[in-house]
Amino acid sequence: MNGGSAYFVVGVGCVLVVVGIVALVIAWNKSQQRKPAPPPAAKGTDPFHTKDEDALRGDPRTLAPGDIVEIRGTSWAVRGSLRLTEASWGWTEHLLDDANGDQAWLSVEEDPDLEVVLWREVPDVTAKPGAATVDLDGRRYTKDESGRAQFTSTGTTGLNETGTVKYHDYEAKDGALLSFESYGDSGKWEAARGESLVRAEFRIYPQAR
Predict the structure, then answer these.
(1) Rounded to whole angstroms, how far apart are CA atoms 168 and 178?
(2) Are 161 and 194 in contact (CB under 8 A)?
(3) Which of 53, 68, 176, 202 is least surrounded, with the fewest CB atoms within 10 Å of its CB?
(4) 149 and 81 within one domain
(5) What is the sign, positive or negative, of the torsion defined by CA atoms of 50, 55, 58, 59?
(6) How many CB atoms lie within 10 A of CB 121?
(7) Is residue 45 included in any domain, yes or no?
(8) How far apart are CA 122 and CA 180, in angstroms?
(9) By the 8 A CB rule, do 160 and 169 touch?
(10) Are residues 74 and 124 located together in one domain of the fold?
(11) Whose CA is closest to 107, among 99, 98, 116?
(12) Are 164 and 119 members of one domain?
């Protein structure tokens, strides 16, 4: 073999080595691309974590006679319910009874946010609704809204199964609520003070239906 041939052979050999190395690199890269990505590390989950508080504390929109409502540590039984409508607007009011025989009303409304209010009767009120403001027990209430609604009664409410109710709602600067209601054509007005409840202040225990 002369010198030219030797150089030719060596050159070809080097080219083949380089081609082989390139082929190996390409094959290795493809094999890495075909490998599935490792699964993410498992994270601990809180079984009680949920964005839906109704799943934990019950849904006030579904309250019905026979259910139990715990409000600020006191248990109340739902004795009866009123479903009220005025044009396209609707809300519910539930008559509550505790172990001591005390009674209250719980209203549930979406306007558009959920509003839950605990109402207690104010006896012997001499103030009459309709004025722009009403003064009661040292607090001034400003008129919020008024109207006339149709109602349907279930359970024990002391009212007919269907009827109408006129209402005047007032609110004080500190958020205290005052409502006047007159059922049917009696002309008798009943007054109640209301306290808005935050979601953490009540829990609902629905009974089997």
Answers:
(1) 8
(2) no
(3) 53
(4) yes
(5) positive
(6) 12
(7) no
(8) 10
(9) no
(10) yes
(11) 116
(12) yes
**Mean pLDDT computed over 112-140:** 95
pLDDT at residue 55, as a whole number? 77
> Taking 50 as the threshold, does the pLDDT of residue 181 lie above it?
yes
Q: What is the mean pLDDT of the chain?
A: 83
User: Greatest CA separation found in the chain?
Assistant: 129
127/82 same-domain check = yes
Q: In terms of residue numbers, what domain contains 31? A: 1-37
pLDDT single digits (tens) 26-54: 454 555 444 444 444 443 434 443 446 77
Two tokens, residue 111? 């306007």
Residues 52-90 have pLDDT tens digits of 677 789 999 999 999 999 999 999 999 999 999 999 999
Please tell me whether the peptide bond between 38 and the residue prior to it is cis, using omega within 30 degrees of 0: no
Number of domains in the chain: 2
| In-domain check, residue 154 | yes
Q: Which of 196, 113, 105 is nearest to 157 (CA)?
A: 105
Picking from 135, 143, 123, the residue whose alpha carbon sits closest to that of residue 192 is: 123
Same domain, 70 and 153: yes
Looking at the structure, tell me whether residues 87 and 128 fall in a common domain.
Answer: yes
